[in-house]
Each structure stands twice: as C-alpha cells, then as structure tokens.
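Narrative of activities, Objective 1.

The group set out to show that a structural description can be obtained from nothing but a protein's sequence at a throughput compatible with the screening campaign. Below is one input-output pair from the validation batch, recorded exactly as produced.
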Amino acid sequence: MSKRKAPQENPNQAITDLLSELANYEKNVNRAIHKYNAYRKAASVISKYPSKIKSGSEAKKLDGVGTKIAEKIDEFLSTGKLRKIEKIRQDDTSSSINLLTRVTGIGPAAARKLVDEGIKTLEDLRKNENKLNHHQRIGLKYFKDFEKRIPRKEMLEMQDIVLGEVKKVDPAYIATVCGSFRRGAESSGDMDILLTHPDFTSESAKKVQMRHHNKILKKFDSLPHCDEVVSFQAKAFASS
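Output recorded for this entry:
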C-alpha cells in the first residue's frame, strides 16, 4: 500500500482565500451555484500549485481558471485587494448573510430569512435562540470551536478513534474519511466520514438501519471530549 504524500504549504494562500470568499458570497448571497463551483474549483487547483503565482496569465494555464478569474487574480496581485471583495464587505446584508452561514446548521436561505427579520449578528442570534432548531443552537454554542482549523496530526488521531468505535458497533461497517482531509489538507474544519454497510440497501428495513445508526450516535456521544453530537445524516442506496 502506497503512503499518501505529506501535504505541503500553499504558496498561494492569499489567492485561494480570496477565491473562497468570492465563492461563499456567490453561494450564500447570490445563490449562484455555478459561480460558486467555478471559484471553488479554481481555488482547489491553485492550492495545489507548487510555486507562487505571479500573474493571472500564469494562473489561467491551470485547468479550472478562466479569463474572468485570471483578471481578478491580476487585480489582486497588482493592487493587493479586489474591488468586488471590498464592495461585498461594505454591504451590510451580504456581510450579515455570510456571517450567519458560518454557524453550523444555518444555510443561505435560513440566513437571508433571519437577516430580513433583523437578526444580523451572533449576538442577535443568541437573543433569538427560539428561532433556531437544535442543530443551529449547537452551531451557535460552539461557534468559536467550529471556526478553528484542526491540524492534520489531530485529524489522524481522531480518525483512528472514530473508525475504531464504528467497528465496535459492527465490524462489517466500511468507514471512509472524506473531504479536505482525504485530499491531503494540512488542516480541516471538520471530519466527514462516509459509512457504508454491505447489508444495507434502499430495501433494508428502516428500523434495522436506525437501530444501527443510534448505536453509532451513542458511541460518538460517549467519546472523550465529545460534548455534543451535532448531526448525523443517514441515506440508503440500492446495491448494484
């Protein structure tokens, strides 16, 4: 089995951060998913580029970086800022929506609804917790914790613990860590784990599936340093 290469530092962090901010704006405020995907793809490709990008034309040679994004990179590299980003940051509605969507459980639609109701800050949310569901309340309660990046070393330790606990529930479970961790990131915002089971399909009895899911939830909830189980999504897929 080949070992995964150690992740390297991103020499273009400022550019990828900028593109990620634009991506979040398009998703959360404009609801323009195609633009969101374009910015995310460009950010992902550039994050893997081994040397510091010196111009938009250099970036454009990479698959996933188009003319418009290359022009924005040129503007940023030559001025140190981007007019579009400056405008977004000065718009109260956009800033508030982007802030609220950083709370786990609050999506773009829910954030816009809250902003329309005059709830624009985390303090506003705390004063109106009755408008939040359980998942959102947990996201608000642990907002600062969820904002912190988890170093890869800690992610590896968490992976061993979590996957070990899953196997205790049923050795047949196949657990795969996904997301940025799987792509080799130096740090991650959270850990996404895909669980599959050879006996579970779309035809499986829901009661049997839920019994297994509840066992896993209890396992996670009993882990050291686990204060809350925030979310657990279960879906069944037909086997081929």
